[in-house]
Every structure is written in C-alpha cells, then in structure tokens.
Amino acid sequence: MHETPLFAYALRLADNALILGHRLSEWIGHSPALEEDLALGNMGLDLIGQARAFYAYAGEVEGKGRDEDKLAYLRDAKDWRNVLLVEQPNGDFAATMIRQLLFAAYAHPLYAALTKSKDQTLAAIAAKAEKEIAYHVRHSGEWVIRLGDGTAESYARTQEALDELYAYSTELFESDDVERALIEAGIAVDPAVLRPEWERTVNHVFSEATLKTPPQSFAQTGGRSGRHSEHFGYILADMQFLQRTYPGAAW
Amino acid sequence: MTEQKTEPHWPLWEVFIRSKNGLSHRHAGSLHATDATMALQAARDVYTRRGEGHSIWVVPSNAITASDPTDKDVMFEPSESKIYRHPTFYDIPDEVGHM
What is the CATH number of domain B2-96? Predict the structure, then answer.
C-alpha cells in the first residue's frame, strides 16, 4: 500500500484509539458495577472520538475520498496500523485496567507533545485528546493501585495481567522511516522521548500497588506494519460486520 | 455465603454538584465506590457527562443524619401557618440575581 507519511501517521494514531475504544465498548453491560460501566463507556467514547478526528484528517490528507467510516469499516487486517497492546483481549477487569494504564501513560505525553506539532490539525486534535487521556491515566492508575494493593486474589490477577501485557509496551516507543521524516519536520513526536515519562508514571503506580515491574524481555511488536495477533480478526469481524454486509447502511 | 462473595461491598456516597460559580452544590444522586477518591471519579463519570459540573462533593451516605419522616408534623407543621416569614412583599431588582 503506497501512503504518504502524514497519512500513515494520522492512521496510526486513529487505529490505536479506535481499537482500544472498541475494546472498552465490549465492557458495556458487563462491568463489575454500574459506576464502572459508565466510566469504561466514557473512556471508550473519548477514544472513538479521537479516532474519528484522526481518520477524518487522514482521509483528507490522502485525498481519495475515503472518510472516517470507510477507513474504519472497509480495511482488512493487514492495513491496520495499531500497536498490538490495544487489540489484546479485555481479560478480567485487572487486565483491562493494566492495558489502559500502559497505553494512556504513553498517549498522554504523546498528545501533550503533539499539541506543539507544526501540523495545525494534529495539534488541535491532540489538544482536546490530551485532557481526555489524562483522566484515563488517573482512573486506570487508581484502580491498579487498589487492585494490586487489595486482596491476595486481586493482587495475583493484576500482577499476572501486568506480566502478560508488559511485553507489548516496547512497541509503543518504536519508530520507523515513515515517522522519522515527520519527526525531523516537527510534525510527528519521537516516541523514544516519551519513554522516561511513561516509566515514571507506570512505575509510580506499580510501586503504590505493590506490583513488580516485569523485566524487559522480548518485545511483542508488528502491529504497525500490519502483523496483528490472532485476536484482531475477531475485532474486525465484530466491528465491520454491518458495513460489510449492508454497504452504506446508515441510521 | 455466596451472596457475600459476589456482592461488591462498596460504601454508598451522596453526590453534590455545583453547576456554576455562585450557585450552591445540589444533591445529584448517590453511587457506590470503594473510597473517596474513587467516589469522586465515579461521580464525574455518572453525573457530569453532559457538562453539568464545575465542582463535585462526595459525602459518605452514613455521615448524613436525616430527620425522621414520622416526626414531620412536629418538625414542619408549625411553620406552615406563618406566611409572614415569606419575604413576598418586596420587589427584588433583577440585578440582585439569585436569592
């Protein structure tokens, strides 16, 4: 697929937000408490809103008439550019909160830095998204603290989720030629510079939560070049079914 | 026994929201939360989704002392016959705002 760097970059931002937003939407009606159902729904809507803005811009940059719906509903798995972390299954509540914290602690400094992008549209979307994602850090962080420093069972589940998901965090800080050109032009954010702040945020939570930061072992990566985990096809099947079956359906 | 295992024993909190500066906090509803911090977050998520709030208070429900409904005659009836306590005979200029 031939794409300009700016299109690819906007698409990556959009895909991360939409897939994580979709995952959170799967909790609706299944949360441990009504209060949390709304919290997860709110966070999911924040992310889907961010995705829409990034998709709309990607479509505009591409200039081939693809709008946010076409980009979200009519692309196959190999054309999706989200990191593997966001497509991981919800698991139990602890796993969902760990995944949210790992992602939000990265996205928050990313959006903050992106507000200074030379690209006005990216900067404007990031300015709105930054406040939303700051709350995700707070909410997931407070939960991880309570679950980790909770009962023996909640501790065990949370540590297990962290051990499982931590290997997916390396991919957040990778960059490639597509991004490097944009980073040099002052449009994209170099993800490597976000890592120290990310580490401070998550390690602070983990120590409050009495959790052990897993050692950096091998990294699970590949999502951004379209190599997704086995879970991804099921997400698309669920998310794209309606538009694939009834093209152009609207209500 | 089983019920105790599945029921989340989260305390109940009363939520008060101030919609804008100058007004007082009003009771918005109640919710369950593990502690005060989480109660504030839940209040934000449950009761301020449509831009209702500028400030939130959460209070443990068991910290509220309520009047006894069977006591209402003694408590409230004596004031009903004293209409002269209502300042309805004054014209209040619009500029005064909320009274």
Answer: 3.10.20.520
